[in-house]
Design brief:
six-stranded mixed sheet; 7 helices; globular; alpha/beta
Length: 194
């Protein structure tokens, strides 16, 4: 049985400053490109049977620089649509909404972005997992996505409610995590590895 390799895209100006970048297509920084290239040796020995990526350029570029040729864009791997919180930091949101927590309180609709509820994000990750699980019998599968999406994907892999995502540390840009099975049970075999 193969492993599911979950890669967070490399650093962007927005990830560096803590801004919520859901659907805004923000380019990688030079450091982000360097981190993506550094993933290539870790991935070169893998027997990848499929590679999927968020269609946003920061994810597709990370896949390219990491040597993941032929990454198939998958809209279900897009980051959480942050709605009216797009482009804001958590501190800015809490100025207007004291005590706000993404996992508990969600987002508000925005002009350019309607926003998503956590259950909608979970439904997208469930669809991704339904497509990937059969492929794992043939080898490893890599996905290149985003921080919050990766957390939701991981807890859904584990069979947990999407709200359990708050229990995982936010994966750093340009890192990978490994999801596997042990004795027939889903596990996290590595998390947030540079």
């Amino acid at each position: 049985m193969g492993e599911l390799i979950v890669i967070r895209h490399g650093q962007t100006e927005w990830s560096l400053s803590g801004r919520h970048a859901g659907r805004t297509d923000v380019a990688l920084t030079e450091a982000g490109e360097t981190a993506a290239r550094a993933l290539a040796p870790r991935l070169a020995h893998r027997r990848l049977v499929a590679v999927f990526s968020s269609p946003l350029s920061r994810a597709m570029r990370t896949a390219e620089l990491a040597g993941l040729t032929g990454a198939k864009p998958d809209p279900d791997l897009l980051e959480w649509d942050y709605g009216g919180y797009e482009g804001l930091t958590a501190e800015q949101i809490r100025e207007a909404r004291p005590g706000w927590d993404l996992w508990r309180d969600g987002v508000i609709p925005g002009d350019a972005h309607p926003g998503e509820e956590l259950a909608q994000v979970a439904a997208r990750t469930d669809a991704v997992l339904d497509r990937i699980r059969p492929l794992l019998s043939e080898g490893d599968v890599a996905v290149v996505a985003h921080g919050h999406l990766a957390r939701v994907l991981t807890v859904r892999w584990l069979g947990l409610d999407a709200s359990a995502s708050r229990l995982l540390g936010h994966p750093h840009p340009g890192t990978l995590s490994l999801l596997a099975t042990e004795d027939g049970q889903p596990i996290i075999s590595a998390w947030n590895v540079p």
